[in-house]
Amino acid sequence: MVLKIVPYAQPAGCGEGFAHGLHAWVSCGAANAGTDPRRATLNPFELPASIIDRTVRDRAVTRLRASGVRLPTFKELAAPVASSIVVEQTVDPDFPDAANLRRVHWYNAADRRHVTEVPGYLELPSALTGVPARILVALGERFPMIGAHKVLPAYACLAVRLVTGLFDPTRHRAVWPSTGNYCRGGVAISRILGCRGIAVLPEGMSAERFEWLSRWVADPSDVIRTPGSESNVKEIYDTCAELARQPDNDIINQFSEFPNYIVHRIVTGPALAAVYEHAARSSSHARLAAFVSSTGSAGTLAAGDHLKATYGTRIVAVEPVECPTMLYNGYGAHNIQGIGDKHIPLIQNVMNSDLVVGVSDLSTDTLNVLFNTPEGRAFLAERKGIPDDTIRALGSIGISGIGNILAAIKTAKRLDLTHEDVIVTVATDGAAMYGSERDKSLRRDFDGRFDQIAAAEVFGRALAGVGEDHVLELGHHDRRRIFNLGYFTWVEQQGIPLADFDRRLDQRFWDELCALVPVWDELIEGVNRDAGTGDSGR
């Protein structure tokens, strides 16, 4: 098969050896001729680089034409200001409007209707963190429809299927295994694209997730609750294995979907670089010392590959100490919703990580109370001198974002970072998704009473008392140990070929994945042209 490579400004570190990388692991075109077109999705390493089934692809075009949907390219989502993908301000960012696909990026303003020159972020003062290093938190709540950045990988994974003819929106059902935000993003994207979306998530996740899903799914049966809570991902996989027996169900597994990695590397990575560059203007000696992100599906961690290639930034992976898989080969249940899932995701580039940091869900749960109650905010203002605008902005940080902040503080202490050092991290969503969890913590941890004394205790224990415990600086053998843990999930349980599994040891594998982006963008543009939506919304 002959591929036309279109010009594209690759993010730093992405390989240019396209032909070498493509033939190493991508299965496409004639390789799948005469078989079920969706066979290419059975092995996550068989990434499509062409139209696999034109008939299915043309049915998608017909559906998009009828709905007036224009698919944004990866390049547009990486640079929406330069691409001028403008959305009418009157379009509600929380409505299933096709225009909201053009808001699936980091550059939404606080009102979520306008586009900004710099992604929204919060710089935390030292009075709150207790360290001199500057900690910048990118705000995922500005993403449309779900108020979380997980809508970005959901779009990427389904868009690749649509434009290559691997997913028929008139027949196939998109199944989204998740611990909450990714499945919400998948359901939102599915609804806009006119296909059936099924959410699979643990029954113990926050009530707000289920309330949102009840409003967006086509049928209540499209929300499937699996046993357990955040760390019970094996139960999700077992349920998806049952669903996969129905030929019209397509399991779009964020933990093994390389488009999840790719879109974060080429969209989130440059967005976080823009955050750093904006903050660094105030210091001529600033350096981006670390990027901190919880594991979850490990998609967001891919942004670290871009930052490391650009600035030499250390990559810090975060997990709960109640489920210390990377730190201690451990297991357990926890409540930092969105991170630490008792296994190593297939798309986690373990060999490029530099530190692993564990944080406690007792700290994240109680800080959720401190940050989002009148008593807690009064303590921060009156006793700690935290500025009012910072206190208000803490509502933009959900539980996993709090965990990332705590890990950033631990990183700053372990590495002796100074005021010239910058740490960038993300808040996947905001506190609005965790009101029910806050109420649980109030009853469980404070007997229903939270006052200034309780606020002081939480601050002293969870913030001022942060130490360097549960921090591991990774050497080669540490990385290889963590990498090896993935074998039991992906090779023994999920049937990934061992040779494919081991390819991920080589950084070139990850770098060369980015070479697929211009190919996919060309396919997206072709679908838009055929659907008659190529220039709409510009």
Give structural notes.
The chain is of the alpha/beta class and 538 residues long. The protein has 22 helices and eleven strands. The strands form two sheets. It has a seven-stranded mixed β-sheet with strand order 1-2-10-7-8-9-11, sandwiched between helices. Strands 5-4-3-6 form a four-stranded parallel β-sheet, sandwiched between helices. The longest helix has 23 residues, at 258-280. The protein is globular, with a radius of gyration of 22 Å. The relative contact order is 0.16. Residues 1-8, 16-35 and 37-41 have low confidence and may be disordered.
What brief labels describe this structure?
538 residues; alpha/beta; 7-stranded mixed sheet; 4-stranded parallel sheet; 22 helices; 11% strand; globular; disordered N terminus
* Physical arrangement of strands within the biggest beta sheet: 1-2-10-7-8-9-11
Instruction: Work out the strand percent.
Output: 5-15%
Unreliable stretches, pLDDT < 50, 5 or more residues?
1-8, 16-35, 37-41
Structural class: alpha/beta
Determine the fraction of residues in helical runs and give it as a percent range: 40-55%
- Using only C-alpha atoms, the radius of gyration works out to 22 Å
Number of helices: 22
- Note the overall shape: globular
Largest sheet composition? 7 strands, mixed
Count of strand segments? 11
Calculate the terminal CA-CA distance, rounded to whole Å: 33 Å
Mean pLDDT: 90
